[in-house]
Amino acid sequence: MINSNRENLSLNEKILEHKELIAALVSGFIILLAWRMESTEQTTAAVIAYLTAFFIGGYAKAKEGIEDTIESKSLNVEILMIIAAIGSAIIGYWMEGAILIFIFALSGALETYAMNKNNREISSLMELQPEEAWLVRGGFEPIKVSVKDLKVNDHILVKPGERIPADGEIYKGISTVDEAAITGESMPITKNVGNEVFAGTVNLNSVLTVKVTKPSSETLFQKIITLVQSAQSEKSPSQQFIERFESVYVKAVLLAVALMMFLPHYLLDWDWTTTLYRAMVLLVVASPCALVASIMPATLSAISNGARNGILVKGGVHLENLSSIRVLAVDKTGTLTQGTPVVTDFIVRDDLDKQQTLALIAGIEGQSNHPLAQAINAFAKEQGVINEQNITIEDIPGYGMKAQFNEQSYIIGKPDFVGAKLAKQFADGALEQLANEGKTVVFLKDHQGIAALIALKDVVREEAKKAVAALQELGINVAMLTGDNETTAKAIAKEAGVSTYVAECLPEKKVEHIKQYEKTSGHVGMVGDGINDAPALATASVGIAMGGGTDVALETADVILMKNDLSKIAHAVKLSRKMQRIVKQNIIFSLTVIALLIISNFFQAISLPLGIIGHEGSTILVILNGLRMLSKNV
Question: What SS3 class is residue 351?
């Protein structure tokens, strides 16, 4: 019984979703019946049937047109179609008026399909958000509660195969989590105690206890849904222009039709029937339906395509701007590079054991929270080295550390701290070459002199190199803006393949450079982490945030990449440029068809049915062309 009710509900939902298409098809069927009646001289019955077709097919668009006219206090294409259909009926062309309503309803149903297709993308996202969760309190059995009732610091149980119901961090357990819904990354990620997890992602193979860190209304998943919804409602400059143009154009068409209803009779000696007939044809063929539909379906489809690929665009205006950027300014740390230093070179004095020396260095650095110290410790663990214990240290901020171990003194830190001359001479002058490669060098000094050096570097992502090359193929110059020194910046820029770089660039300086690029190159994109780069992101034509979908990134930028993957920018640019090409094709095509139909009507070379087919057919083709943006291929 329950399943039967669900099936009925689903059927009703499908009927409601396609009601415009059903109405159009019913209208078309009635028109066929009316034509058949007319051919057998059942005139009155045929007229009644045509009127029925008028009402069934035209009700939705007529209601929409009248409501929009009242709300905006301006005329629109729906009003033109209503007047044209009524006018056709008045002069006795019942079938032509009904066909106009039928094809207009059909094109409207297709446009509604485009909207529904994009709405289904939102619905499919929302379906990934669980509505219930297993709440754990003390030693009691887990209880099922609504996700909306979860509070920060609550503990929830997530079983294998279930979607995680709230943003949080793992309190107990180890498992692999499928984060494709958030990042678009197909490979699952292993999550351990303390790791962050997101609502809507799937726990794959082990039971997890998750500590809730955000209420359901503030989860990353909910913010993504809100962003895509707002993006679909925000109109691009081109769409806004078309809508302003529509009102003026409709008034011009009505004025032209009013003149057409009597001027040709006096100036060209047309009879009154021909004059009125041609006025009705002009009313149909001059209507800008195809022009109005040139942009919105393509824009909505492009936004939907981007969302499926982990690219969140906050509106049509930003999508348009993406197509015209000529310079892309990128932050170095966390964008081109991994964002954390790693050990690249380890050189030890000939009289010392390499493993023992590394154990000593790791034992000293293990007592520091500095990123370089953490990188050295990670390197030692990779080498299977156990840190020396019972080391006494003294931290010298900005330089390094002094240490005591086995009654011997050690110094570890910058070249100037251990002795610049000794540091330059060690290992046949390795310091100069390593520094030229953009590496930070840390030295260990004992009572005999320099004992070892460790070189570290924030390495360039492999995918970043490919992404930079892909962007340059698209004609976009990539400029790196970094706070690092000249030597490091030059080395990273060369390795990443960027066109230009600016070293020692503080956040306020980044804004100045963005403005300079805009003066010389036009539209400029800025890529950053959404925190210290916020001023530059706001200044650029298009601000693009990376950082795995952090809260700050979601709030700051115009475009959000849900993964730290620069290649998504090239995809976004291609998506934008394809959308612009389709929009231009649609506009040129629709204007050409309107012009040809108007000229043909003036020379009496086109009938009302052909005018209807040409006009509404062009509208349908324009909408279908826009829907190509839903394709996975860009």
Answer: coil
Radius of gyration in angstroms for the set of CA atoms belonging to the chain, rounded to a whole number: 34
| pLDDT of 15 | 66
Paired residues of 330 in beta bridges = 480, 527
- pLDDT per residue as tens digits for the range 311-364: 888 877 888 889 889 999 988 777 788 777 889 999 999 999 999 999 999 999
Q: At what angle are helices 567-602 and 608-626 packed, to 10 degrees?
A: 180
Query: Closest Cα to residue 193, out of 175, 211, 171, 212?
Result: 171
Cα angle at 460 between 454 and 466, to 5 degrees? 155
**pLDDT value of position 549:** 47
407 in the Ramachandran plot: left (φ > 0), alpha (ψ -120 to 50) or beta?
left
Query: CA 555 to CA 353: how far, in whole Å?
Result: 52
Asked whether the predicted pLDDT for residue 369 surpasses 80, the reply is: no
Please indicate whether residue 331 is annotated as part of the active site: yes
- List, in sequence order, every residue forming a beta bridge with 189; answer none if it has no partner: 177
Overall average pLDDT of the 394-413 stretch: 86
Q: Where residue 239 falls among pLDDT bands split at 50, 70, 90?
A: low
pLDDT at 252: 86
* % residues pLDDT > 90 (the chain): 19
Pick the CATH number of 132-227 from 3.40.50.1820, 2.70.150.10, 3.40.50.720, 2.30.30.240: 2.70.150.10
* Cα distance between residue 41 and residue 50, in whole Å: 14
Q: Is residue 41 exposed (0-12), middle (13-18) or buried (19+ Cβ within 10 Å)?
A: exposed
Q: Cα–Cα distance between 389 and 68 in angstroms, integer?
A: 77
- Separation of alpha carbons 193 and 596, rounded Å: 69
Looking at the chain, the number of H-run helices and the number of E-run strands are 24, 22
pTM score: 0.70
| Amino acid at the residue 520 | T
**Cα separation values, 440 from 118, 372, 464, 490, 558, Å:** 49, 9, 21, 14, 35
Q: Give the integer Cα–Cα distance in Å for 403 and 411.
A: 6
Domain boundaries, the chain: 1-118, 132-227, 312-337+461-568, 339-459
Can you tell me the distance from the alpha carbon of 326 to that of 523, in angstroms, rounded to the nearest whole number? 6
Q: Which fold, 312-337+461-568?
A: Rossmann fold (3.40.50)
Catalytic residue among 154, 167, 178, 331: 331
Residue 226 tokens, joined = 């809100």
Q: Mean pLDDT across the stretch 55-66?
A: 80
| Residue 231: Cβ-neighbour burial (10 angstroms; 0-12, 13-18, 19+) | buried
Q: Can you point out the beta strands (E) in 265-341?
A: 311-313, 327-331
pLDDT digits (tens, 9 = 90+) for 7-18: 444 556 666 667
Mean pLDDT, the chain, rounded, equals: 82
β-bridge mates for residue 208, sequence order: 158
Q: What is the DSSP letter of 348?
A: E
Fold annotation for 339-459: Calcium-transporting ATPase, cytoplasmic domain N (3.40.1110)
